[in-house]
Design brief:
It is built from 20 helices and 16 strands. The radius of gyration is 27 Å and the shape is elongated. The chain is an alpha/beta fold. α4 (102-118) packs parallel to α6 (146-156). Strands 1, 2, 3, 4, 5, 6, 7 and 8 form an 8-stranded mixed beta sheet that branches. Strands 9, 10, 11, 12, 13, 14, 15 and 16 form an 8-stranded mixed beta sheet that branches.
Amino acid sequence: MTYASDPRVEQVRERLHAAHEASAAPTPKAADKLASQNKLYVRERIALLFDEGTFIEDGRYANAMADGLPADGVVTGRGLVDGRPAIVVANDPTVKAGSWGARTVEKIVRATESALREELPVFWFVDSAGARITDQVDLFPGRRGAGRIFHNQVALSGKVPQICCLFGPSAAGGAYIPSFTDCVIMVEGNASMYLGSPRMAEMVVGEKVTLEEMGGARMHCTVSGCGDLLADDDTDAIEQARLLFSYLPSSWRDAPPSYAPEPPESPLDATVVPEVESQPFDVHDVIDGLVDDGSFFEIKPLFAAELVTGFGRMNGETIGIVANNSAVKGGVLFADSADKAARFIWWCDAFNVPLVYLADVPGFMIGSDVERGGIIRHGAKMVSAVSEATVPQVSVVVRKAYGAGLYAMAGPGFGPDACIALPTARIAVMGPDAAVNAVYANKIAAIEDDAERAQFVADRRSEYEEDVDLERLLSDLVLDGVVEPEDLRDELVMRLRYAARRDRAFSQRRRGVPPV
């Protein structure tokens, strides 16, 4: 039996085929530009993200009737990442520099609506020059304009993971897309974020600055903190994104994935932590002795390095680690390190990741500079995050935990499931030398004989140390236990396992008002 053909249907097929092919690969000129920038084509990026053969695209024919706007410059759809469903929103920098038109915005809004409706993680592949000014009325102000993207991102925050790979620019209002995600991975040399370009800065405020200084990847990962991780190239960024996802659940309702347990790279022992509290050491050595071999995934390693944050696995289970690092600025807490800690704690709490605090902290920084910078406000933000967290938490006093530093590292008053210590631990309002000087400064100054003065100071120091003796703190139930370094990992594994069923409620209210 034969069927008659309809010329109109054939024309439709031809036009759709042409539109499909227009977004299948870059033009030769665009391909050359990508190669010169060491960038991958948008579909190559997506192929690296999703398991082979699992990607389904939405809205591929957006603006198909316009010339030179294949898919309207953004690829959206879903697939599987290590067998778990996720959504991707990926700018195509070969289409008008990845800029946004009205259909671009509609596609992104629809993708975020799907993520909200189905509670699916979102990978943001950003490489965009921002909005097309010629389309501003259609894309900018309305109820389904660009603002709706940000609104939906905020609604998604804490509901599903949002991971951003920033391959190129993220300009003007579009720079807020990375800022609303959980983690921003920036390709060094290509990625940038800025509200106003260097040219605009010079024109409006008279500042002459390079793009790298204004909003480059290294600047944001070391100075502003807007970037979390640096990547060498597109492939490295996507590999980091996939690895990060392996530590997180698919939504706030789920537990993080479990993996086969592995022993640490090198077991923790008493040689790792110096007994003299003034001797700095790298807390990464402690972390490596606690987590499964090679499993520590650090977040913001280049920003506020006096505090270490990151995900690891302990006996195959995901944990979050917040650790003071005395090797950097003595481990003192600054405004930036408090911000870094607060956001990481919120992140872990949102996605059911238990927290381990490794305290070796002399307290918060003092001085006029930090006071003018709002150290009290920023410190309160970290303490707020610790207070509100309802995931299982264990605080380990590795060495010193002085002043509000004890509070910021989930000390006993903040209801951790346990507060334990190594034998090297000390807890006090301040260190013995500072305490003696604070209480007896005038009397010390009045003693003329050097030997007598030294003996007086030594006696007062001894009295102070007896007052905060570790055995006394254990006897008074300030601490729940003291553990030798080689036993700490097993202790943490068991305590976190037993705490897994803890009540996740904190306070009956509409919401807190954090001191940001």
